[in-house]
Specification:
This protein is 48% helix and 7% strand. The protein is mainly alpha-helical. The two termini are 33 Å apart.
Length: 174
């Protein structure tokens, strides 16, 4: 759903007469932390099992949170941080896996090791993937509350910077 939020925000930004050239003014810091987090998470998902997977998966979330915090002064970053934190918490208390509620009538899915079916022993189930986005949406999926914060934050972030006016810069960037 992140990709859809980005694409929709770009379309809305263009309709609002936003400019892609405004993106050059984003004082973004620590991009390497986002890349490192992705690499660590991919490594964990592809090659690790058991306790090693759990700890390395959590490490990827900590690196991601540090990357987001490096940009805390950017106005629309807070909901992105909250969404990442909520997802990280539910994953941390459920053995490194995001619990998922499947729609009625769908049998147990073949999840990757980063996801697991919600059971009676799932902790903090209300932060898990429980929000079902079904037809008529073209790509049905299940989202968490954290995902909603991420989607809103990413949409807001892109809108803010596409319609950014350098003269109103509260961050005193070039």
């Amino acid at each position: 759903m992140i990709i859809e939020a980005i694409v929709l925000s770009l379309i809305v930004g263009i309709i609002r007469r936003g400019k892609f050239s405004n993106l050059q003014y984003i004082p973004f810091r620590g991009a390497w932390l986002f890349l490192l987090s992705y690499a660590v998470q991919a490594f964990a998902l592809l090659w690790l099992k058991g306790p090693a997977f759990y700890w390395v998966h959590l490490l990827s979330y900590l690196i991601l949170l540090f990357g987001i915090m490096a940009n805390y002064k950017l106005p629309p970053v807070f909901p992105i941080y909250v969404g990442t934190l909520l997802n990280g918490i539910v994953i941390a208390v459920n053995n490194g896996q995001m619990p998922v509620k499947l729609p009625m009538g769908i049998g147990a899915a073949n999840f990757d090791q980063g996801h697991a079916l919600i059971t009676s022993s799932t902790k903090l189930w209300f932060l898990a993937d429980i929000i079902i986005v079904d037809r008529p949406y073209p790509w049905p999926k299940v989202l968490s509350i954290g995902d909603l914060f991420l989607i809103a934050g990413i949409f807001w972030f892109i809108q803010y910077w596409l319609t950014y006016h350098k003269k109103n810069n509260i961050l005193n960037t070039p």
